[in-house]
Write a structure and sequence with these properties.
The protein is elongated, with a radius of gyration of 25 Å. The model has no long low-confidence stretch (mean pLDDT about 95). About 30% of the residues lie in helices and about 25% in strands.
C-alpha cells in the first residue's frame, strides 16, 4: 500500500518522542519559527511526567551540580546545564503560575499535580503551533544526499511518510517499558554508526535470594532512615558506570530505606543502585547519626539494667528490632546491658553502623526510573546535542549516556539537553 502523502509532509524539525525532552525541544524550536512535528508511539504524551514524583513531578532541584550526574564523560553535560539552568526552568514554571514546593534536599515538586507541568509543555507547544501525533510507529529512517531525513511510519495503522532537515531523537531509554521505554534510540544510533555503551537499570530497588529475602518480606512496608553506600568489587571495575577519580570518593546517601516483598527500596537504595553492579556489597548504616559502639557502651555505664531490645527500640522501629535481634543477637535478647562485655557491644555497634548486604539482583527495567549508560557522548556535540559526523541528527534526554541522581536531576537534564538542541536545529 503506498504511503499516505500529506501535502504538508515536509517539516523543518521532526522530534521522535513526546516526553519531557521531546516536548520541551519542540516548543523551543517552534518558538524560533521552525515548523515542528512530534511523533509519539503510545496513545498519550508525557506518561512518565504524569507518574513521576508520586504524581507531583519533581521537575528540578534548586541545587544542580556535576556531582549529581553519572556519565563516562563527566564534563559532557556541563555546557547544557549552564546554557539552560534550573533557574531558567523555574522561571518558566512561575510564568505559567504553577504552584510548587521545596522538599528535602532542595527538590521542587508541583503542589497539586504533575499534570501542571505536562499542561505547561503542551500549551507552549500549542502556542508555537507544534504538530503532535500519537499512535505513530516508525518503520524506517533514511537520508538523502541533501541531508534530508525521510521517515516511514504507520499512524493509526495507515502508512505515512515525512521529511525534515533536522531529526531529534527523544525516545527515552529502557526503563519502565509500560510507560513507553524502548531501545528505538539505540537502534537508530547504531544505524548511523554511533557507539552505544553498556546499559543497566538505575534508580531501582534491590532483590535478595538468601535469608534477607525473608527478613524483607516480614518487614514489607516498613521504612527506616539509613545511610547507604556501595563497595565496588574491583573484579567488576570495567562494568561500573561511576569510576571514582583519584580525588573522588564513592558517594553515600542519607535517606529512607523501604522494605518490600522482594527486597529493599526507598530513596537511599534507589540512589545507591546507580553505583552498584552484580557482585558488589551495599553497606547500610542503621544509626547514621550515632557511633553505635560508643552509644551502647555509654548506655551500659549509665543504665546497665536496660535490655538490648528496649535500648534499640529508642532508635529503630519495634518490628525491625525484633527481627534483627532474632537474626543476629538472639542469645542477648533478655540480658541487661550490664551483662554484655564491651567487646560484644562493640560487635553489635559495628553491625548497626556497618550492615553489609549483597543483593542478588535489581528489579530491572520494569521498575527502574532511569537507564544507566546509553549513546556514547564522544559522538555528540555538548553544545548542540548534534551528532558530530551526521549533520541534522540530534539525540537528547535519557537516550544519551547521562544519568542524574534522584531528586529532579533527570528532568533538568531533559530540559537542558532539549533546549540546547532546540536552539540549534
Amino acid at each position: 500500500m503506498p504511503a499516505h502523502v500529506d501535502q504538508l509532509n515536509n517539516y523543518d524539525v521532526i522530534i521522535v518522542g513526546a516526553g519531557a525532552a521531546g516536548l520541551f525541544c519542540a516548543a523551543t524550536a517552534a518558538n524560533r519559527g521552525k515548523r515542528v512535528l512530534v511523533l509519539e508511539k503510545s496513545n498519550k504524551v508525557g506518561k512518565k511526567i504524569l507518574m513521576s514524583g508520586g504524581g507531583r513531578c519533581n521537575f528540578t532541584n534548586y541545587t544542580i551540580e556535576p556531582e549529581n550526574f553519572i556519565s563516562a564523560n563527566p564534563h559532557f553535560f556541563k555546557a547544557a546545564l549552564k546554557r539552560y539552568s534550573q533557574w531558567d526552568f523555574i522561571a518558566l514554571v512561575n510564568q505559567h503560575n504553577i504552584e510548587y514546593e521545596e522538599r528535602k534536599h532542595t527538590q521542587l515538586f508541583c503542589k497539586h499535580s504533575a499534570k501542571d507541568i505536562l499542561n505547561m509543555l503542551l500549551k507552549e507547544c500549542n502556542d508555537a503551533k507544534v504538530t503532535i501525533k500519537t499512535h505513530c510507529e516508525i518503520t524506517q529512517v533514511t537520508t538523502t544526499a541533501e541531508a534530508t531525513y525521510l521517515l516511514e511510519l504507520t499512524h493509526k495503522e495507515k502508512p505515512y511518510s515525512y521529511s525534515c532537515s533536522s531529526l531529534v531523537i527523544a525516545t527515552g531509554a529502557l526503563s519502565i517499558p509500560t510507560l513507553g521505554g524502548s531501545d528505538f534510540g539505540y537502534t537508530l544510533a547504531n544505524q548511523f554508526g554511533l557507539e552505544v555503551t553498556n546499559r543497566q537499570a538505575g534508580l531501582v530497588p534491590f532483590m535478595f535470594s538468601d535469608s534477607l529475602k525473608y527478613l524483607c518480606e516480614s518487614l514489607s512496608g516498613l521504612s527506616i532512615a539509613v545511610r547507604a553506600s556501595c563497595e565496588q568489587n574491583t573484579k567488576n571495575k570495567d562494568q561500573h558506570f561511576f569510576k571514582p577519580g583519584p580525588h573522588q570518593q564513592m558517594p553515600s546517601f542519607n535517606e529512607s530505606m523501604l522494605f518490600t516483598h522482594r527486597g529493599i527500596s526507598g530513596p537511599a537504595i534507589l540512589q545507591i543502585s546507580n553505583y552498584w553492579c552484580p557482585g558488589d556489597t551495599i553497606t547500610i548504616d542503621l544509626l547514621s547519626e550515632l557511633n553505635a559502639t560508643n552509644w551502647l557502651i555509654d548506655c551500659k555505664n549509665q543504665e546497665g539494667h536496660t535490655k538490648l531490645k528496649s535500648l534499640l527500640q529508642q532508635q529503630l522501629p519495634k518490628a525491625f528490632v525484633k527481627e534483627i535481634i532474632n537474626l543476629w543477637w538472639q542469645e542477648f535478647n533478655d540480658k541487661p546491658l550490664a551483662e554484655l562485655t564491651d567487646k560484644i557491644l562493640s560487635d553489635i555497634g559495628m553491625q548497626l553502623n556497618c550492615w553489609k548486604i549483597k543483593p542478588s539482583a535489581t528489579e530491572g527495567y520494569r521498575t527502574a526510573e532511569v537507564t544507566l549508560g546509553g549513546i556514547n557522548t564522544d559522538d555528540i556535540s555538548s553544545k548542540t546535542m548534534e551528532v558530530k559526523h551526521k549533520k541534522g541528527l540530534f539525540f537528547i534526554g535519557e537516550v544519551l549516556d547521562v544519568t542524574g541522581h534522584l531528586g529532579g536531576y533527570n528532568f533538568q537534564w531533559a530540559w537542558s539537553s532539549a533546549y540546547s538542541a532546540g536552539i540549534a536545529v
